[in-house]
Write a structure and sequence with these properties.
2 copies of one chain form a homodimer. Chain A has 14 helices and 16 strands. In chain A, the strands form 4 sheets. In chain A, strands 10-9-11-8-7-12-13 form a 7-stranded parallel sheet, sandwiched between helices. In chain A, helix 2 packs across helix 7. Chain A folds into 2 domains: 245 residues, 3-Layer(aba) Sandwich (Aldehyde Dehydrogenase, Chain A, domain 1), CATH 3.40.605.10; 145 residues, 3-Layer(aba) Sandwich (Aldehyde Dehydrogenase, Chain A, domain 2), CATH 3.40.309. Chain A is an alpha/beta fold. The N and C termini of chain A lie far apart (64 Å). Chains A, B: It comes from Saccharopolyspora mangrovi. Chains A, B: Pfam families: Aldedh (PF00171). Chains A, B: It catalyses: L-glutamate 5-semialdehyde + phosphate + NADP(+) = L-glutamyl 5-phosphate + NADPH + H(+). Chains A, B: Catalyzes the NADPH-dependent reduction of L-glutamate 5-phosphate into L-glutamate 5-semialdehyde and phosphate. The product spontaneously undergoes cyclization to form 1-pyrroline-5-carboxylate.
Amino acid sequence: MTVIEFPTSDKATGDELREQVREAARRGREAAAELAQATRGAKDALLQDMADELVKRAPEVLEANEQDVAAARESGMTEALIDRLSLSTGRVEAMADGLRTVSGLPDPVGEVLRGQVLPNGVQLRQVRVPLGVVGIVYEGRPNVTVDAAGLTLKSGNAVLLRGSSSAENSNTALVWILRDVVARHGLPMDAVQLLPCHDRASVHHLITARGLVDVVIPRGGAGLISAVVEQSTVPAIETGVGNCHVYVDASADVDMALRILLNSKARRPSVCNSAETFLVHADIAEEFLPRAIAELGEAGVTVHGDERVVGAGGSHVVPATDEDWDVEYLSLDVAAAVVESLPAAVEHIREHGSGHTEAIVTSDFRAAQQFTAQVDAAAVMVNASTAFTDGGEFGMGAEIGISTQKLHARGPMGLPELTSTKWLAYGDGHVRPGSAPVKPGS
Amino acid sequence: MTVIEFPTSDKATGDELREQVREAARRGREAAAELAQATRGAKDALLQDMADELVKRAPEVLEANEQDVAAARESGMTEALIDRLSLSTGRVEAMADGLRTVSGLPDPVGEVLRGQVLPNGVQLRQVRVPLGVVGIVYEGRPNVTVDAAGLTLKSGNAVLLRGSSSAENSNTALVWILRDVVARHGLPMDAVQLLPCHDRASVHHLITARGLVDVVIPRGGAGLISAVVEQSTVPAIETGVGNCHVYVDASADVDMALRILLNSKARRPSVCNSAETFLVHADIAEEFLPRAIAELGEAGVTVHGDERVVGAGGSHVVPATDEDWDVEYLSLDVAAAVVESLPAAVEHIREHGSGHTEAIVTSDFRAAQQFTAQVDAAAVMVNASTAFTDGGEFGMGAEIGISTQKLHARGPMGLPELTSTKWLAYGDGHVRPGSAPVKPGS
């Protein structure tokens, strides 16, 4: 086994850093052209080998990770963030399993999406092709490094990884191993590159490398995502900010509504598909609220309620402020309001929702129809928890993120969402009839 | 018939103009929510009536257009641009026919794209929904006003039209008529709005109205498109810049290659799918070049050739400069080079192409396979003219533009490309198993 030297960052700044990022993108572009031609067999074998190698070389990864964790502790990082940063043998094995899962998924590249023979005899078909060079900007979790590399490589793309400086040693060790395996398989090592992370400017250089980078996907908190999306001149996909609602309709089965609300809120409050607000129809509020408040209290949830919710009592119920309707808590907090009607619930969601996941609990067919038609979100649930919005749950095998925008992909993004398309037209000397040569401008 | 007053621009500037544009977007958003629920029947009837009304009120439109044309002449506009601006009874009828065509196309909204029952019994399906509010930024042609309105309304979207100030009277007359018909059909008039065009700042306000506008599509020259795409914080779709190539392979049938080159170049040089460069394999150059140069000369085309092309002679052959390989002439000019191999042609296209349409003329199966696999463009033609890249030719019925980017849509964009998707999940009290409530950050 040859260990390939991974270029160490020389802490460049200013124009030099910009040129480093652009040069990485150019090398990524070359690698992407080669990778686009790789067969599914070659890509699957690559991912399997990457998984094996990660497990084999886990000690290297853990040693690098210990340095990051020690530095993080010294800098006073919170325990929650340190937990996200920390790796263990089990977590490295989970990354390897992720690669094996992706290896087993169908290859989207080459899939024929539609096609026909045109009236003139030209054979036309639209096929999936890789996007090219994909930039991923993310925060402390080192597992994103491996997940993102697996998904982008499988879909025939080159990836530029821009992780957090707090995980620099871990990410460098991981990428070193992955590149090593890529090279051993005779594929271009620059299909996986880690960008310098010592200076925030490298993010800016990445997201403005229009023409060199085909898409940027930010993964992290709301601040990171909106900064990337707003400053990017490279097409960006907005992911993962979820101000999700559970609406309990007048006709709801109260037991079912309680179960769905509790699961949506408290199953894993730190993830984007967890509920942040519940709305309850006035006709059922008197029956529903006391039980909901009690059960949420038992689960440790603080309720930020409007006047009528506060009126229903409970020591863990506090008055909601205007901000509570818009905030993504990601914690054991929930905003709650009583609404007069289903249209009022839809209106509240239209005003405050982030277009991620919205749920209705109802027994009324027409209410379900209205809610699903009128609520504009990536996913709308009827009598099911908001927690189901997830690539794994949707049967995609793995996801690179959950898009909350409307272009290109909406909801969980799996391998097909990491591709573009190309039209192929086969003729036999076909030309398009029409005017004789005409002057420009006509 | 009630004539609805169309709000006249009061030539606002600065913050006031910004607020005007944002208020239009907000009204568009309200209208879009209503329009998203309109049935295909309602939308088709609307478009049919718009067509009839345009023909009936053509004199109003022509009168307004005469004012624009007179002002344009006075300002010294070129005849080519005046021709683009000018309307006639025939051109108004053509717009009406366009609306009737779109009326007859299938409605993309509601189409089920995929679906399954999850292992837990939840019924999942992905359906097409309108994008919401679509902004169109365009230049002098008033027919874009009607075409864009027809396509966006049919796909359930509201449209904000930002046309050229040179066409202000024509566009106002057209939009007045369209809004009038929308109102008569009981639909929200603000589904079609014309933005102020007296100040370039209105474009800026439109393309930065993130959260209010869902997508911006620029239609026009390369300068307009790149300005919109680079400055936009609203997702934008890059359209229509075409530096298209015809590659004549060593194995090409020379007669076929000449026919395809002439058609690709000279059929309509002012449109984006026309060829701007041809590349010829060295092995066939001696046979092909003299005939190609002669035929291009007869068609009035100036050839900007590399050394070997210039060496083949002809009074209309001039030496190519470095810029010639990258320019979109949109005129009776073509760049030409001899290449040593198919990979050299692919490399030239990778360096200079704009990702629109690339063609190979070949009799060799493997050459066709290599070219289609390795050339990265919206459309790749084998033995067919570049002129076929067109929504009408591809059987889409109508197009809003030709996307040259890789996200969301690539190539001609018809009605489905003006939609997003939504996941619907129907359960019966389903919750997601998993950990007991965990602390945030874990």
